[in-house]
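DM from R.C. (forwarded with permission)

"hey, sorry to bug you on a friday — could you get me a structure for this? deadline for the figure draft is monday and I only need the backbone to look sensible"
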Amino acid sequence: MAGVHVSTTINGDPAEFVCEANEPLLDVLRNRLGLTGAKEGCGTGDCGACSITLDGELVCSCLVLGAEANGRKIETIEGMADGDKLHPLQRKFIEHAALQCGICTPGFLIAARALLKKNANPTEEEIRFGLAGNLCRCTGYDKIVRAVQDAAREMRGA
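My reply, with the result:
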């Protein structure tokens, strides 16, 4: 079977790859491009461990085909920090101990960033709703919610 040639932008950089027509974007990112930040948790879009943004919209990369990324803009956890400078959400997750094993953390960070891009001052309920597609089995959600609230305050300059 011939592969599908895809031209896209990943974390601001142009990228090209060839994938199988039925190959999930998660597999392309991890196995073909070496971007292993997105994790496969469930493979059915229920856990959010594979969250990325595609043209600014939060998606589960296990549910998107690599071929669907053609001409689109992908953002992954690898592009979240600015060089050695962590994104405020990354720093606040560390400060609030909002992570443990790390499997779910990249997905939570991507989902939280997508939330804060749409709503810079979310309520606790809005944060919990915005992160409802991401599951954590280790830390519980209170530390994650507090980290997002703190990052939102910092990003607003409040």
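R.C.: lifesaver. DSSP finds five helices and five strands in the chain.
me: no worries. The first strand starts at residue 4 and ends at 10.
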